[in-house]
Amino acid sequence: xxxxxxxxxxxxxxxxxxxxxxxxxxxxxxxxxxxxxxxxxxxxxxxxxxxxxxxxxxxxxxxxxxxxxxxxxxxxxxxxxxxxxxxxxxxxxxxxxxxxx
Length: 101
Prior knowledge:
- By secondary structure, the protein is an alpha+beta fold.
- The protein has one domain: 2-Layer Sandwich (YaeB-like fold).
- The chain has helices at 14-30, 34-49; strands spanning 9-12, 67-71, 74-81, 85-93.
- Helix 1 (14-30) runs antiparallel to helix 2 (34-49).
- The radius of gyration is 14 Å and the shape is globular.
- The chain starts with 8 loop residues before the first strand and ends in an 8-residue tail after the last strand.
- The model has no long low-confidence stretch (mean pLDDT 91).
């Protein structure tokens, strides 16, 4: 059993926060669907919180220090830092051309 001391802390890079806000705002205002925007935010946040327990369970992203976890069509790129910290780097659509990341 994992103790509280062994849980990883989740942090978001500034860029990840911007991306999350952008996606939320796009769904809410451009698609005119505030309920879907709220559900998206709640569900993706829950998915990210699972990284507290098993951040190494997900694959690395090509030959980088990033790992990724999927939520629906969204690819959540993160890095595992020292001192039990998982830093979310960005959130992108899996439909995007990802060669430049």
